[in-house]
Design brief:
With 208 residues, the protein is an alpha+beta fold. It contains 9 helices and 4 strands, in the order H-H-E-H-H-E-H-H-H-E-H-E-H. Strands 1-2-4-3 form a 4-stranded antiparallel β-sheet, sandwiched between helices. The longest helix has 25 residues. The chain is globular. It starts with a helix and ends in a 5-residue tail after the last helix. The relative contact order is 0.24. The mean pLDDT is 94.
């Protein structure tokens, strides 16, 4: 059950450096990202799958995060579009038409998307693409749990450093999130502790 997977998973604080994901495990997680629902099917982000040790060290990680990055199997960096452009939206429209067949409704819909997004300032659009990226990370963590792979989401890094390391500015991208993947180490202090969550009463309000 999904609830069992969510109970099993936690944000690992220490990884076993000798254990690596299989290709099947990695591909299952990446496919979940690829299948993530996004606004207007835009998928306004890219994911960098990093195993190179030097690249990992240069991502601008802060605090206790560096140990996880050093010892895990793979590091995923989620980078969102810095803005919506006519070219990017047209590419989505073209892909949709190529997949589903030409349809006037498709082109008309994406023309409306352009009319809505393109007049907005870049900061507003960048915030919108970043929110889509968070959805993708959520799906990736669930897929990792299904594969019995540990995953740790991180915002504790310097995006400017990560952007420079990965050459993201030239690609029109901004780093948003880091997700480490691997297998929990024996010295992970958090593994045996119970989850701390709000009660149903504090979390949910029912409006009839």
């Amino acid at each position: 059950m999904l609830s069992d997977l969510m109970t099993w998973r936690y944000s690992a604080k220490a990884y076993d450096p000798n254990k690596k994901l299989s290709d099947d495990q990695l591909n299952a997680i990446l496919q979940s990202i690829q299948l993530t629902p996004t606004s207007s099917g835009s998928q306004p982000f890219e994911v960098f799958v990093i195993t190179n040790p030097e690249t990992r060290k240069n991502l601008g990680l802060m605090g206790m995060n560096q140990g996880c990055v050093d010892d895990c199997s793979h590091v995923l960096v989620f980078a969102s579009w810095d803005n919506y452009t006519a070219e990017r939206i047209d590419a989505i429209s073209d892909l949709t038409a190529a997949t589903r067949g030409p349809n006037d409704m498709i082109s008309q819909y994406y023309e409306r998307v352009k009319a809505l997004y393109l007049p907005r300032d870049a900061h507003t659009n960048a915030e919108h693409t970043a929110r889509q990226t968070y959805i993708a990370m959520g799906f990736a963590m669930l897929a990792a749990a299904e594969q019995k792979v540990d995953a740790t989401p991180m915002e504790g890094f310097d995006p400017a450093v990560a952007d420079e390391t990965l050459g993201l500015k030239e690609k029109g991208l901004k780093s948003q999130l880091v997700l480490t993947l691997g297998f929990r180490g024996e010295n992970d202090w958090l593994e045996k502790l119970p989850k701390v969550r709000k009660s149903d009463a504090d979390m949910f309000t029912y409006i009839d």
